[in-house]
């Protein structure tokens, strides 16, 4: 008997029928003698609907109240899934984030989990119940409801698995694993049987939204065995087959050494570029620009400072598209005149396209092949950043899908490894 955590995303609980199918799948695992903790998201589209409602009432919603509203979607699905399980004759109990005391900090809309009280869950599990927990939500010291950022149910699941020392955390979703690229964009993308934590971290942070990045960080830190698999397969698939399907996120690099240099292509549409034009090329300029940006709690990603000409230079960086206007405002009000810049330019129609693979460590020439591929497609590269296992470029958003497909082809990612 093992303790297993399942997580079902929005599409997987998107209708009464789907919720019943989840119950059927969970019943199969329970019947095999396992203890089950099941984390669910809101029904697909529901969180967007709630956020839209909030904005319709208050264009810049109060963060505390926004979390009160946004967290309700998951409360509906835990209740419905517990009912579906009971309807099948299985003992089950639903818990909100506050009820299992998923204690977080107070950073509304992007709270971090600090501690989880496992006792209420252990008690129910020992009684033979399936424990159903709301994803995405927690509670801070003051008792206020918090949420963990978009896609946060993945993190709830992995954090519960870590706290309960679960045998495995299974992320059931609407694709049957992690692919070499988003299958919605690249039709011949290939499922990866395994991917390393390091690669998954890069893929998630570079825009592959199949797993929330924090969930991967958690899994790596607490060594939680993590698998991404399909919730749309037949719920009665034999357990032995299902438990080895999908993509396993592995800790070791060694088994990948002889495999492909590149594991995947990621892209992120959520980017914006800002250029401070004509700033004096002297010590302290980067700090004068990025200091106020940091103070405004705006995350900066890529940064480029051009070589100076006649003592002047241009300084460019990227931010999340949602924080673009705020960043421009900070620069225009607090930075431009202070450092005597001639102009602040913004472009929120850019995207980031990245190649990820641990094989890059031992193989040269990945970046140049990437640049050649984009050149042949006539796609201009606006910014570049690299790490040991990734090369990322910023391009005009109208080229993003073509860039992803061309790179996928150029690096033979559609061919079996
Ligand atoms: P859930 O609601 O189950 O959390 P998400 O929509 O958050 O599901 O994540 C699954 C989606 O992630 C897929 O439908 C797919 O379009 C997208 N995706 C992006 N990149 C990848 C990738 N490399 N492999 C698999 N899916 C990906
Ligand atoms: N329902 C939340 C969202 O849409 C959390 C999740 O689905 O993981 O972002
Ligand atoms: Mg998700």
CATH fold topology of the largest domain: Carbamate kinase
Could you give the distance between the termini?
Answer: 35 Å
Provide the CATH architecture of the largest domain: 3-Layer(aba) Sandwich
Number of strands: 18
Mean pLDDT: 95
Gyration radius (Cα, Å) is 23 Å
Helix share bin: 25-40%
What do you see in this structure?
The protein is of the alpha/beta class and 417 residues long. The protein folds into two domains: 3-251, Carbamate kinase; 264-410, VC0802-like, CATH 3.30.2130.10. The chain contains 13 helices and 18 strands. It has helices at 16-31, 46-57, 63-70, 72-87, 119-126, 153-163, 197-205, 213-222, 239-242, 285-295, 324-335, 366-376, 400-410; strands at residues 3-8, 35-40, 92-95, 102-104, 113-116, 130-134, 137-139, 145-147, 168-173, 194-196, 226-230, 247-250, 264-280, 300-305, 312-320, 343-356, 383-387, 390-396. The protein has an eight-stranded mixed sheet, sandwiched between helices. Strands 14-15-13-16-18-17 form a six-stranded antiparallel sheet. It has a two-stranded antiparallel sheet with strand order 4-5. A hairpin with a 5-residue loop joins strand 7 (137-139) and strand 8 (145-147). Helix 1 packs across helix 4, helix 6 packs parallel to helix 8 and helix 12 (366-376) crosses helix 13. The protein is globular. It binds adenosine-5'-diphosphate, aspartic acid and magnesium ion.
Overview features:
single chain; 417 residues; Carbamate kinase; VC0802-like; 6-stranded antiparallel β-sheet; binds adenosine-5'-diphosphate; binds aspartic acid; binds magnesium ion
């Amino acid at each position: 008997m093992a303790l297993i955590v399942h997580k079902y995303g929005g599409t997987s609980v998107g209708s009464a029928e789907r919720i019943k199918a989840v119950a059927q799948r969970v019943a199969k695992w329970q019947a095999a003698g396992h203890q089950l903790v099941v984390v669910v998201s809101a029904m697909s589209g529901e969180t967007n609907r709630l956020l839209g409602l909030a904005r319709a009432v208050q264009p810049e919603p109060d963060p505390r109240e926004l979390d009160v509203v946004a967290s309700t979607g998951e409360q509906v699905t835990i209740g419905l899934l517990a009912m579906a399980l009971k309807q099948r004759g299985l003992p089950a109990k639903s818990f909100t984030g506050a009820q299992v005391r998923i204690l977080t900090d107070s950073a509304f809309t992007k709270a971090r989990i600090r501690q989880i009280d496992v006792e209420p869950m252990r008690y129910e599990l020992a009684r033979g119940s399936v424990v159903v927990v709301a994803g995405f939500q927690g509670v801070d010291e003051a008792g206020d409801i918090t949420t963990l950022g978009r896609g946060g149910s993945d993190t709830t699941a992995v954090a519960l698995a870590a706290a309960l020392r679960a045998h495995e955390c299974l992320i059931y979703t609407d694709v049957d694993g992690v692919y070499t690229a988003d299958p919605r964009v690249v039709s011949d993308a290939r499922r990866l049987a395994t991917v390393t934590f390091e690669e998954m971290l890069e893929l998630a942070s570079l825009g592959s939204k199949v797993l929330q990045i924090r969930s991967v960080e958690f899994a790596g830190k607490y060594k939680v065995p993590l698998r991404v698999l399909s919730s749309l397969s037949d719920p009665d698939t034999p357990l032995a087959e299902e438990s080895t399907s999908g993509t396993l996120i592995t800790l070791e690099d060694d088994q990948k050494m002889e495999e492909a240099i590149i594991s995947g292509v990621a892209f992120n549409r959520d980017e914006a570029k800002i250029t401070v034009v004509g700033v004096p090329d002297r010590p302290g300029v980067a700090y004068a620009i990025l200091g106020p940006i940091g103070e405004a709690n705006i995350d900066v990603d890529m940064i480029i400072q051009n070589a100076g000409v006649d003592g002047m230079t241009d300084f460019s960086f990227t931010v999340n598209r949602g924080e673009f206007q705020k960043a421009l405002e900070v620069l225009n009000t607090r930075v431009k005149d202070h450092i005597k810049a001639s102009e602040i330019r913004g472009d929120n129609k850019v995207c980031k396209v990245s190649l990820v693979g641990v094989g890059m460590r031992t193989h040269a020439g990945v970046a140049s092949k990437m640049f050649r591929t984009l050149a042949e497609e006539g796609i201009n590269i606006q910014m570049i950043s690299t790490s040991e296992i990734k090369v990322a470029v910023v391009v005009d958003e109208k080229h993003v899908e073509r860039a992803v497909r061309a790179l996928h082809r150029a690096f033979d990612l559609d061919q079996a490894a």
